[in-house]
Design brief:
This protein is an alpha+beta fold and 349 residues long. Helices cover 48% and strands 18% of the residues. The chain is built from 9 helices and 9 strands. The strands form 2 sheets. Strands 1-2-4-3-5 form a 5-stranded mixed sheet. Strand 8 (327-336) and strand 9 form a beta hairpin. The chain is elongated and about 75 Å long.
Length: 349
């Protein structure tokens, strides 16, 4: 069996799946490890994202020629728009440009906003926005935050500003809660080329956007905490996310609503195909076997520890509990010619 779901619904389902895993990981770190360690995790994740994506993204979006403050603000506006995040951009001058992440906040979706400490939100700004000037080799560029939704304000808001002098590291992010952004005017905002970014491409990009967060987070968490502690927390979080999000994800992937081992095998395969992986399902005397060759999420990540496979598999363990808690899932993995390979056996517990 090798039925492949395709199209926007499948890609959106995968985007929500990994979006939930990222947010859940931050929340688990806050509640189980404390705010300082959660802030450190978020800071390192966003530093990594900035290092890997910011400068290539400027060129891909065709905005690298713009003044630094304008280019940085437009990058966040356009790249987040591609990812499905509600962001506004307001130009004030070549040296000052605003962005506003609107409600509801994508990063801390739903009720998660209530559990994110202010320090964790600041860590995101420090890891990315405050360092955009460093990435551009312009040490006069900083970021000024005027609002944070996690503090009960109307959104996450601020502006890039190019100062007359070079900034010290502690000056690259500052707060000015007395300032307020100008109104957003959609007609004046930058746009993506319509032909280059049709709805289907945006849906796929939204999937990639959410997966990128977890690709970074899995590697960063292990490097920060070590394999044992990272696997424990990441797997536990994954199981809870799989448990909570299985039914809506299965519906979006058009998986039969049957509590059988075969139906769950079809879920694994459908999820894999929607992620961009090759996967097959077969029935054997032992139970239903699922094989996946290649792992788009983590293949190519040079510093990914092998333990991340066990942590990530928690998503499927939790999903199976929601599907039919009388079934058991056995997973083995190895590195093959096409990247990471997975074999799952689904059978009666």
């Amino acid at each position: 069996m090798n039925d492949k779901p395709s199209g926007e619904h499948a890609w959106r389902a995968v985007a929500e799946w990994y979006h939930a895993y990222f947010t859940g990981t931050v929340l688990s770190t806050v509640t189980r490890c404390g705010t300082p360690r959660a802030a450190e995790l978020v800071y390192e994740v966003f530093c990594r994202q900035r290092h890997e994506r910011f400068l290539p993204g400027l060129h891909k979006l065709g905005i690298s020629h713009l003044p630094p403050a304008v280019a940085a603000a437009q990058y966040h506006y356009l790249s987040n728009h591609i990812g499905g995040v509600a962001v506004q951009y307001m130009y004030e001058s070549d040296r000052k440009a605003w962005i506003r992440y609107c409600a509801p906040r994508w990063l801390w979706s739903g009720t998660a906003l209530c559990a994110i400490p202010s320090e964790v939100s600041r860590a995101m700004l420090a890891g990315w926005h405050a360092h955009n000037g460093v990435s551009l080799n312009n040490l006069r560029l900083g970021f000024v935050c005027t609002k944070q939704a996690v503090d009960g304000q109307s959104g996450l808001e601020g502006y890039y500003y190019e100062y007359e002098r070079e900034l010290q590291p502690h000056e690259r992010l500052r707060f000015a809660r007395n300032e307020d952004a100008p109104d957003f005017v959609g007609a004046a905002a930058p746009t993506l080329p319509t032909l280059a970014w049709p709805a289907t491409r945006l849906a796929k990009a939204s999937r990639n956007y959410a997966m990128e967060y977890m690709r970074s987070t899995l590697a960063v968490a292990v490097n920060l905490w070590g394999p044992h502690e990272a696997t424990s927390l990441l797997r536990l979080t994954a199981k809870m996310i799989g448990l909570q999000f299985y039914h809506q994800t299965a519906r979006a992937l058009s998986v039969p609503a049957q509590p059988s081992a075969l139906a769950f095998g079809q879920f694994i395969a459908a999820l894999a195909h929607a992620q961009g992986d090759s996967c097959e399902v077969s029935q054997t005397a032992e139970g239903v076997r699922v094989t996946q060759r290649g792992w788009r999420l983590m293949d190519g990540v040079a510093d990914a520890h092998p333990c991340v496979a066990q942590a990530w598999n928690g998503l499927l363990e939790g999903a199976l509990d929601a599907h039919n808690h009388r079934l058991a899932l056995r997973m083995s993995s190895q590195v093959g010619a096409r990247g990471r390979e997975f074999d799952w056996l689904i059978a009666r517990a």
